[in-house]
């Protein structure tokens, strides 16, 4: 707004500029004030993440049903309902934020349904028990509907037009926009390593391996028997499941809001392995329930726990779970803005 006979604004006192005051540098005549959109996940990446979530939810729902209702209530109809719920929930996550979520949801149903059907046929014992083939067509249908619902609950972000600054912008305003639109290449791009958080998360991951029996008993007592894990006979299997979940959670905490989740997760896993090795040496090579459950799942005798292949499997499992959790935490909880942008104070030109 122009005020006749005044070079300053009568309200705020700032100097007024005319449209004739333009930028002298021709390279800064047009400055993009809208930052580039963050990279979108690929179609196959969404399908893979949705399939992993569906399989994880299936295991969680199955164990929760056994804990609440008992293993004798896990009949065929209950198992089918659990599978459809898990596939629907995973496909909803896959379709969120997309214009057409039914397509990735359908692929999740096909992939997860194929894995479950093949597993059922292999373990059925003969063609007369091949009943899972009859419900295989239901997985993609349920997943497609779940993906469509996810895309409606969390729609695709609105695409705004890219606004540029014209050449006739005032000098003071253009210089301000130039500073706002400065390239990230001029700023320090190295994300620092949060060592204190890594140490804390490594202790959490270490405790999740050696304290699974205490956690299992606490859940059973705190829930007044509702989370009955089957007693001592299922201690190894339940301990392995609890440790896997807590290792991923520890990695997620270490990588959240850092922008470098893989690095934080990897460092956390290395410190966890060091703590575990020191503990094994001090305690005299005990076999914790998660280790026993992992060896039992792979049909490795407990007497071979110190064999090179067993040690490699244990180390590889810890590194994979914690590093994957660090990556997942950085994706679910990214930093809102770089540190240099949060500390910026733009001067006011008078």
Secondary-structure-based class equals mainly alpha
Mean pLDDT: 78
Number of helices in the DSSP assignment: 13
Shape designation: globular
* Percent of residues in beta strands: under 5%
How far is the first residue's CA from the last residue's CA? 16 Å
Largest beta-sheet details: none
- Secondary-structure element series: HHHHHHHHHHHHH
**CA radius of gyration:** 28 Å
Number of strands: 0
Which percent range fits the helix content? 55-70%
Q: Which runs of at least 5 residues are low in confidence (pLDDT < 50)? A: 28-33, 165-188, 346-350
If you had to describe this structure to a student in words, what would you say it looks like?
- This protein is mainly alpha-helical.
- Helix content is 59%, strand content 0%.
- It is built from 13 helices and no strands.
- The chain is globular, with a radius of gyration of 28 Å.
- The C terminus is likely disordered.
SSE blueprint:
Elements: H1 43-69, H2 76-95, H3 102-122, H4 132-135, H5 138-153, H6 171-180, H7 195-210, H8 212-222, H9 235-255, H10 261-283, H11 289-297, H12 308-332, H13 339-342
Write a concise keyword list for the protein shown above:
single chain, disordered C terminus, 59% helix, 350 residues, 0% strand, mainly alpha
């Amino acid at each position: 707004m122009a005020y006749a006979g005044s070079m300053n604004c009568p309200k705020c006192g700032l100097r007024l500029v005319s449209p004739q005051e333009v930028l002298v540098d021709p390279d800064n005549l047009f400055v993009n004030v809208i930052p580039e959109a963050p990279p979108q996940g690929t179609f196959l990446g969404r399908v893979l993440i949705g399939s992993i979530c569906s399989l994880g939810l299936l295991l969680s729902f199955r164990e929760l049903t056994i804990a609440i209702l008992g293993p004798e209530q896990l009949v065929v109809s209950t198992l089918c309902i659990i599978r459809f719920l898990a596939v629907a929930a995973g496909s909803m996550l896959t379709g969120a934020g997309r214009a057409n979520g039914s397509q990735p949801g359908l692929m999740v149903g096909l992939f997860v349904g194929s894995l479950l059907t093949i597993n059922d046929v292999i373990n059925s014992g003969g063609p007369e028990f091949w009943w899972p083939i009859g419900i295989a067509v239901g997985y993609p249908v349920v997943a497609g509907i779940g993906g469509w619902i996810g895309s409606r609950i969390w729609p695709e972000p609105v695409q705004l037009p890219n606004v540029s600054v014209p050449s006739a912008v005032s000098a003071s305003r253009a210089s301000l926009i130039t500073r706002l639109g400065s390239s990230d290449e001029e700023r320090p791009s190295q994300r620092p390593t949060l060592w204190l958080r890594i140490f804390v998360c490594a202790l959490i991951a270490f405790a999740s391996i050696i304290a699974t029996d205490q956690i299992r008993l606490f859940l059973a007592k705190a829930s007044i028997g509702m989370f009955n894990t089957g007693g001592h006979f299922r201690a190894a299997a339940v301990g392995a499941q609890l440790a896997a979940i807590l290792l991923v959670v520890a990695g997620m905490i270490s990588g959240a809001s850092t922008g470098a989740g893989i690095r934080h997760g990897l460092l956390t896993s290395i410190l966890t392995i060091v703590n575990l090795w020191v503990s094994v040496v001090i305690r005299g090579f005990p076999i914790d329930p998660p280790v026993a459950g992992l060896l039992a799942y792979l049909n490795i005798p407990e007497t071979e726990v110190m064999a090179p292949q067993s040690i490699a499997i244990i180390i590889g499992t810890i590194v994979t779970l914690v590093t994957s959790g660090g990556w997942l935490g950085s994706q679910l909880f990214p930093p809102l803005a770089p540190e240099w942008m949060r500390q910026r104070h733009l001067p006011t030109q008078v």
